Structure formats: structure tokens, C-alpha cells
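Fold it.
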Amino acid sequence: SAPVDVVSGRDEIRALFEQREPGSGARLDAYLDSAGEAYELAVSKFLYDTYQGTAGLRDREVVFCLLPDLPYLEPMLPALLDGGAADLVVMSTISPSAVRGLAARLDGQVNVMDACMSGGVAKAEDGSMSIMCGADEAMFERVRPLLDVIGGTVELMGEVGAGAVAKACNQMVVAGTLVALAEAAIVAKDN
């Protein structure tokens, strides 16, 4: 099929999906609504700031970052460093090498921890997320009481990047399980 230009705007994207596959617009709406609910939950229950500006990065001992990827953090780094934060906790699912690179770049300016989460919206709502951390032990012990507020299981997996490695391994197990379940369903249906 021919390439498609993806337009911006929820209504426009919904119409595009619907045009390509009837019924998919409603599924897209459901997904976007659930993502919006998760974002609002994070802002109302956990985040101090939406980070659309840099005010939330100033005068904090610990800054939690939950952005789609590290490049989104780059424009905020000067304010974070000027703001005097001692610890930066990156809670996004990101590349282990990327978070290690960030930690190396910021060495001596701010401590960096990766703290990757697993559990979905339900576990976020009831404060029982699993959080896999990568940091030195001293930073982990300083930050752990804050992570315990949202995490039922908070574990130090090793140095910076180890949380991201653990999350990647977790996702491989989940993906493998889903493939096995799908294969089992096909075998059961066909026999």
C-alpha cells in the first residue's frame, strides 16, 4: 500500500485511521483516552510539574523525569543543573547505554539513576508498580523512600543502566509469553 502522511490533531488522525480500517478510529480513541488518564494520574498523584517550563526543576533535591526519551530532557538540563538538584531519577523506559552516557556527562554535577517501571495503570493507581533501578547504592538509599510511595517492589539491579537492562529483559519475557499464548491458541483452535 502507498505511504501515508500522518497529520496532527486527534480528529484528523482518527479520520485517517477510520479511512484505512473501519472501526479502528474507536480503538484509537480508547487508546488515547487511556494514555491521557495515565498522564493525568501521574501529574495529579506524583509529578510536581508538567515540565512544560523549567520552574519545576529548580530548588529540588531530587528531580524525577518521566519523558518519552532522553532527548526531551536535553533542553531542561541547564535549569536542572542551575537549580541545584543533587539527584536525577530517570523513570522512562530508555536505552541502558543512553542513560549511562547521560550519567557520564553529568558526573560531578548531579547523580543519575534509571528507575524503570512496570505494572501499567492499575498498579500505578494503587501504588504497587515494580521499579527496577540502576544507581550507586548511596543514591538508591537516598531516593528509595520516594520510590516506595509508588512502588510495591523497588529493587536496585546494579549500577546506572542496570534498571533499563532489567526492564528490557522483563519486556522480552512478556513478549515471549504473548507469542507462546498466541501459538497455543492456534494449536488449540486447529485441533
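The radius of gyration is 20 Å.
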